[in-house]
Description:
Elements: E1 2-7, E2 10-17, E3 20-27, E4 31-33, E5 44-49, H1 51-54, H2 63-70, E6 75-80, H3 89-95, H4 97-102, E7 105-109, H5 111-120, H6 125-142, E8 147-150, H7 155-162, H8 167-183, E9 186-187, H9 208-220
Helix pairs in contact: 2-9, 6-8
Amino acid sequence: MVEVTSITGGHRVSITDATGTQTFDVMDGTGGSGGYSSPWSSKKVCVFGDSIGYGYNNNGHSFVDILSERGFFASVHKNCVSGSTTATLAARLQESADEVAEADIVYAEYEANDIVGLKGGSLTTDALVSTVRNCSSAIRNVNPTCTIIWMPLTIQHLSKIAGTDLSYYQSWVNAMYPVFAELGINLLPIFDTLNTNHASSDGRHPNDAGHEAIADLVMQMPLGTSNYPTALS
């Protein structure tokens, strides 16, 4: 179990397993302190995303910036542009090729805009699966050993923003989750940590408290999970 709590000037991370509990402090912008070294303080991270990762409606300040400010990782590279989809990731990877080559972890947060295309019919499940495969290959060509983590929408969040007919998304889950497993891509469902107090004025993008909550989740699960649900219910 991993627990993150706020302390003056930073955050305290407690890791409990069969051997007991180890605690270390991560001070904002300074890395590990307090006699402990964070297991992640030497890791370099790239985050690719859309308006969520950018911090739309929050002055361009997102969970990505918060992770950088907290100093949890050695470095955090942000390449998040509002309106982006998975189809734009290939171009973003070229822009940040040097950072990807040195990254230990690559996060991808694009699914919100992909869902708009799936729902409206401008994007097919087969096309999106193919794009994810191509993007995974592009990352592996630059950096064969990094961990790739997808930040997916889930039924809990999607039902709040897209209504009750989610059959198009069920088709995507059925097709894509086995492919995630095949490609060795982990999942981190960041949106499930949000509640109504975390919405900005447009009701769709996180406010600063929402981005803080997402950053907390990333710190609790830096490598996400390889458990793939097979149904939305």
